[in-house]
Every structure is written in C-alpha cells, then in structure tokens.
Design brief:
The structure is a single chain. By secondary structure, the chain is mainly α. Helices cover 83% and strands 0% of the residues. It contains 17 helices and no strands. It is globular.
Length: 441
C-alpha cells in the first residue's frame, strides 16, 4: 500500500495531468496516428507478431520430427519464456538508460542470428535439445530487451495513443489468424528449418524498419537528474517507486495475478484438450480463428470508442472473456464455442488497448519503459502457475468443471477491477488535456 488517501491521489492525478498537458502543448504538428514513422513501426510490429506465431509450430514440428516428445517441446518453449519473464524488468531499465531504438534494433539482430543458427541446425539434421533450449534462452533475453521499448515508442510517434494501440492490436490479431496456417504450409513444403529461416528474415525486416525510423526525442519531466548521473540500481529502484506510487497500476496487476491463475492459465490448455478430444483438431482451428476474428473486432472498436474512464470501460468489456471457457465447459456445440471465442477475443482486445493506452499516457516518459517492464513481468509471473495447476485441477474436478469455474472467475476478476476506485475512476489524460486547452482559450 502507498498510504496515499483518495483525495491525495486525485490531487496528484490532477497535477500529473497538468504536467502532461504542458508537455503535450505544441504536439499538434505530430500526426494523430498514421505517418511515415508510425507506418514503419507498425510494419515492424506486424512482422514480429507473425514471427512469434509461426515459431511454436516450427519448434513443435521440428523437435517431433527429430524424435523428441512433448516434454522436450515444452522445455524448449519454457527456456525462452523463463528468461524473458526473469529479465524484462532489467530490460526496462536498459531501455530507459540508452537509446530505445538502438536497443530494439540490437535485440532484433540477436534474434536474426539465433534463428538463422536454428535454421542451420534443423537443415543439417543436427538437432540437440540443449542447443535449442540455449537458443530459446537467448531469444528470451533479446525479447526482454526489446519489449519495454514498445511502450515508450508509441506515444512518441502518435498523439492519438489509443488509436495507435488499436491499429497495432489489429495487426497482432491478423498475425494470430495467419501465422499458424503459414507455419503449417512452410513445414509441409520446406521443413521446420525453412520456418526458422523465414522467422529470421522477419526479424531482419523488423530491424530494417526500426533502422529507417526517425524517433522524436523523448520528453522528460522537469526535475529528475540526468540519466547518466544515476546508477543502474538507482534506476531500478526509481522505477519500482514510480510503479508502487500508482494504486491503479499495481492494483490492476495484483488482480491480474488472480486472472492468470484462475482464468487464463487453465483456459488455454484445457480448451485445447476438450475441443480436440470432443470435436477434432479442425474444430479447434475454427475456434482459434473465431478468437482471432474477435480480437480484430475488439481492435476496431478501440479505434472508434473513446471512453473517458478507459479502465472502467475495459473492465466491462473484459466480462466477455468468460463466455469462452464457459461455452467449452458447458459442452456446447461448435457454433456456440466459436461465438464465445469471438466475444472473448473482442473483450480482451478492447481491454488490452485501454490498459496499454492508460500506461503510455499516465506514466512519465522517462520512467515508461521501466513501468511497462514491471507490468509485463507482473502480468506473466503467475501464468505458469495457472497452467501447471490446470492438469491436477482437471484430474480432480473434471476439465469441464474447471472451465466453468474459469468463466465465473472471469466475472469475479472484472468485479474486483471495478471495485477499486483508483482503477474505475482513472480519467484519460488526453481528455484532461483537451478540457484544459478549452479553458485556456
């Protein structure tokens, strides 16, 4: 707890909003969303998202073809996830201390090298599990360096941060739809090594787009000492203080831990198991496609709707996610499951845009990368716990009952988000800026 009263938080928010308003006056010359530089960043994110979606298919197919089992596939995937989750906070400090664009380019070039090496190993037929895990670990480290910079780049390229996040979310949803199918075709025609080669090329494209990007200088708040005068540890501590000082921020992440354990963690593996066993793999593909289509719809809604209290609106939209595990747990037919998946994708995408935009507009620019890193680390920390508990819970209660509980817990989580005043009453900053400009004139 921060020990700050609700009145004090409101006054602090007003002061921060005024500071943001002063910093953002004169930004009218920068495009709301689309410009040459945002288009380059958009392509970089879309290509990278496509690479993320083809990689699991290539990894699973490649290891299985070389005699490894499901445990080896899980270990290879976990090596990347573990290094990412464990180091992303430090990546946030690095992104704040150094040139964000150069850090992101460097991370892409590292992954270009690792995926090229993986392609060579699979093409040569010399596939050793520890080597694949080591490559995955390095990829996770590179991802931990890359991801924090995404948060601070969007508001530097577009004044309409919500619109920019909505556009990027739509691109990610498109990658979610196209990636697995593309990976399947590549594995069939060119082997797993070919998919890794294409993945390496995607990182090359991302790096080239970022290299061509002209990123405006980051607007720093008045007051803090220059970055060069601080130490790495001091920056880490400062980031934690900035994080802890915002009840709405750590409140969401604390509640999100419950969501990861009780909803997201068990839903992913149990939905896959139940749908494939009862309806076949084709049905599972259709359900995933419906989820991706819903995500596109959620991104489009986020482009159109401008709620004054974004986290309140996002929490209400997130209620829809419970329809997905509930439909599968209730044993409904394929059309109903697809409808539930589409509603879930819409709600999750809208929440994601509201959440990302809140962080990018409410947090001081010089601490944004670190705050985003704490967000990512906190959000991902309990996901493996939920996934690990899915199997024992399904064995004890039945997978259908666990999924029904996940549907109910989705409502509980949304209720908890709406029950916290600092979360439901957080006012979007750009609304404050507009109101202030009206008063000034």
């Amino acid at each position: 707890m921060t020990g700050v009263s609700s009145k004090g938080e409101a006054e602090a928010h007003g002061t921060r909003a005024d500071d943001v308003a002063r910093r953002r006056r004169g930004e009218g010359a920068r495009p709301a969303v689309w410009s040459r530089d945002f288009a380059l960043f958009f392509v970089a994110r879309a290509v990278a998202a496509l690479g993320h979606t083809v990689l699991p298919v290539a990894l699973a197919a490649g290891l299985l073809q070389h005699g490894y089992g499901a445990g080896a596939v899980g270990l290879a995937m976990a090596s990347s996830a573990a290094s990412f989750a464990g180091l992303v906070v430090f990546g946030g400090v690095i992104a704040d201390r150094f040139d964000t664009r150069k850090v992101m380019i460097g991370a892409d070039l590292v992954r270009l090298g690792t995926q090229t090496l993986a392609a060579a190993l699979f093409f040569a037929g010399h596939v050793v599990l520890w080597q694949i895990c080591a490559i995955g670990f390095v990829n996770g480290v590179a991802g931990a360096l890359f991801q924090p910079g995404v948060a601070s780049t969007v508001p530097r390229l577009a004044t309409d941060v919500q619109g920019a996040n909505g556009a990027i979310r739509i691109a990610e949803a498109g990658a979610q739809l196209a990636g697995p199918a593309l990976a399947g075709l590549l594995v069939g025609f060119a082997s797993a090594g070919g998919v890794f080669a294409v993945d390496a090329a995607m990182y090359a494209v991302s790096a080239l787009c970022l290299l061509a990007l002209r990123l405006p200088p980051r607007a720093l708040d008045d007051g803090p000492a220059p970055r060069a005068a601080s130490t790495f540890r001091a920056d880490l501590v400062t980031g934690w203080r900035e994080f802890r000082a915002r009840t709405w921020l750590w409140g969401v992440i604390a509640i999100w831990g419950l969501y990861m354990i009780s909803v997201s963690g068990p839903t992913t593996p149990l939905v896959a198991t139940e749908v494939v066993q009862d309806h076949g793999p084709r049905a599972y593909g259709l359900v995933n496609s419906a989820l991706g289509a819903g995500t596109v719809v959620g991104g489009l809604l986020a482009l159109r709707l401008r709620p004054r209290r974004m986290l309140r609106a996002g929490s209400i939209a997130l209620v829809g996610f419970g329809a997905f595990p509930a439909a599968v747990g209730a044993g409904l037919g394929l059309p109903a499951m697809m409808a539930g998946a589409a509603v879930a994708g819409t709600g999750m995408a809208f929440w994601s845009v509201m959440w990302s935009t809140s962080i990018q507009t409410q947090v001081p620019p010089d601490a944004l990368n670190r705050i985003h890193a704490y967000d990512v680390a906190g959000s991902l920390a309990l996901m493996p716990v939920g996934q690990a508990l899915a199997g024992p819970s399904a064995a004890a209660l039945g997978a259908d009952h666990v999924l029904l509980v996940a549907g109910v817990m989705s409502l509980v989580v949304c209720g908890a988000l709406l029950a916290v005043p600092a979360i439901r009453n957080l006012v979007r900053v750009d609304t404050v800026v507009v109101d202030k400009r009206v008063r000034d004139h």
